[in-house]
Amino acid sequence: MIDLKNLTIEKAHNHFKNGDFTVTDLVNEYLKVIDEKNKDINAYVEVFDVKDQVSKAEEMFREGNATLMTGIPISIKDNMLMKGYVSSCGSRMLENYVASYDSSVITQLKNAGAVILGRTNMDEFAMGSSTETSAFGITRNPINRDYVPGGSSGGPAASVAMDGALCSLGSDTGGSIRQPAAFCNLVGLKSTYGTVSRSGIISMASSFDQVGPFTKTVRDAEILFNAINAYDENDATSTPTEKRLPATPLKKRIGIPREFLSGDGIDKEVLKNFDESCEKLKNAGYELVDVSLPLIKYSLAVYYIIHPAEASSNFARYDGIRYGLSSEAQKLLDVYTKTRGKGFGKEVRRRILLGTYILSHGYYDAYYNASVLVRKAIRKEMMNAFKDVDVIVTPTSPFPPFKFGEKSNDPVAMYLSDVFTVSANVTGIPAISVPSGLNKDNLPFGFQIMAPFLREDILFTIGKDFEKLV
Amino acid sequence: MQLQDIKKLAEMARIEMTDQEMTDMANDFGGILAYVNQVRETVGISQEEVNFSFTNVAREDMAVNGGGEYTDILVAAFPSSEDNYLKVKQVL
User: What is the 3-state secondary structure (H, E, C) of A314-333?
Assistant: First the structure.
């Protein structure tokens, strides 16, 4: 019996090196858990046959080529192309679509000898904050199965929280890694836009999307991030190696945007936990500083204007012609309209229509162009604030995990899940969510730390300090 | 937003929906647009203040793969094909 609950990447690596157990042994333990729990939790949409991956990992250890990620059982979100396997993005549109190439992050994981156990569930086309919109069923929060795991990367989060993988890769466009991490008591990182390759990642909103790790510890997030943090010539938005920044000493000052934290929509217990978290850091030697960010409150509105516009453009490719679902019809136009009507669920259709509206004649200037300007101004304001502090902190989510159906009737109520996470996507800065305690119902809180561009090192340093205090 | 407005958008977006679905959508839109409209509150941000410079990183538009390297795998994904051609309904 291997203690999966307390396992970390480094512990597993040392056990492999010392011969305490083999990659086969560890993978089998996770497969057993998946067998036991996945029927109810539905984290995995498909579990892969991993024999070849396991052999390769064991060979790497024998030959002395093993790195920290070798043999590590990892799951991926169902939007990352892996050649020869289905990537369905939680949608009927791609239910049987077989990837024709590997995403760059998959290539990196394969080269490292990681063992990719399977693809995990998500809100359809990454549009959601609860994993309730997947065409392949809901995913349950392993901490309490009546509650949502968060979204859109609910499957990746649940797979780790249920001990069905040691770590996972999700994607984050408005908070889709950090919010499920908070809901499932895990660490979730969205790194700087441009650090991790988007090649082979099914696009939602191209100027926001980033792939990142779900892990149990900050150190594990650092290890997994390091395995995928590299320039990729196949991604035109990839940050060149020479532009990536080195670590510099911390000012040990933590910025708190007080005005932003005073809305009605924030749960009282969440605020209390947030204040307690800040106090802990203060007692550990950090200085708490109030920062003024008057424009940050427009981030969510800006996000809900720009990203549907980008998504509606990106989703034009799903037309029943070259791949994916194709509806039978007499006329070409009907092939398009029937395929898209049938293949897209309600939330996806809603956002495509919203994007179409925003980009249409007469509204383009008032909505899209205006938002692009505001977005740039928010970015500038954020960069300015970082001159005085190392990080800016908020709760990850304005409320604790909710029950299935609780937010399904009002789209805006669901969208408000992202009110704190979305600024990092709007500006491109890196942000991490770290577990910060449990509420009276034993549901987890998450603490969000945001750093300047390309300074993931600051997130890891402060994250590790914070971890010890919880 | 009225049903007529949603119908126009659905037509532009090439999505077939029932009248009921579109009526529900029109209702949802009201709340969403009310929320995002706050962006129009922000005034006085000039284009000059926030311009960043851009560099074109696209490579030359030339074929870099050997002919036929990906044909089989791409044709396999076609909903309908004939002799490696993608088969579609009459275009004109």
Answer: HHHHCCCCCCCCCCCCCCHH
pLDDT at A300: 96
Angle subtended at Cα A378 by Cα A358 and Cα B1, rounded to the nearest 5 degrees: 20
- Name the token pair of A35: 């067998």
- Whether the predicted pLDDT of A59 surpasses 90: yes
Residue A115's nearest CA partner among A57, A164, A65 is A57
Helix (H, G, I), strand (E, B) or coil at B40: helix
**ipTM of the predicted structure?**
0.92
When pLDDT is averaged across residues A130-155 and rounded to a whole number, the result is 98
Whole-structure pTM value: 0.97
Give the sign of the dihedral formed by CA A326, CA A333, CA A201, CA A212.
negative
The residue with tokens 């040990």 is A252
Question: Is residue B68 within 8 angstroms of chain A, CB to CB?
Answer: no
Point out the least confidently predicted range of A34-48, A52-66, A402-416, A424-438: A402-416
Q: Does A74 touch chain B (CB under 8 A)?
A: no
- What pLDDT sits at residue B51? 65
Q: Which residues of A touch B73 (CB under 8 A)?
A: 100
- The predicted pLDDT at position B58 comes to 86
CB-CB neighbors (< 8 A) of A330 in chain B: 89
pLDDT in tens, A163-194: 999 999 999 999 999 999 999 999 999 999 99
List pLDDT tens digits, range A84-107: 999 999 999 999 999 999 999 999
Sign of the four-CA dihedral B10, B11, B14, B18 = positive
Report d(CA B6, CA B4) in Å as an integer: 6
C-alpha distances in Å from residue A393, one per residue of A22, A25, A291, A315, B3 = 41, 40, 10, 34, 43
Pairing status of strand A73-77 against strand A167-172: parallel
Q: Identify the H or E element spanning A193.
A: none
Q: Look at residue B47 and tell me whether its pLDDT is greater than 80.
A: no
DSSP state of A364: I
The CB density around residue A263, as the number of other CB atoms within 10 Å, is 11
Local structure of A380: helix, strand or coil = helix
- DSSP alpha helices (H): ranges in chain B? 3-12, 19-36, 71-75
Cα distance from A341 to chain B (closest Cα, Å)?
5
Q: CB distance B80–A326 less than 8 Å?
A: yes
Burial (0-12, 13-18, 19+ Cβ within 10 Å), B82:
exposed
Pick the closest to residue A267 from A443, A112, A431 (CA basis): A443
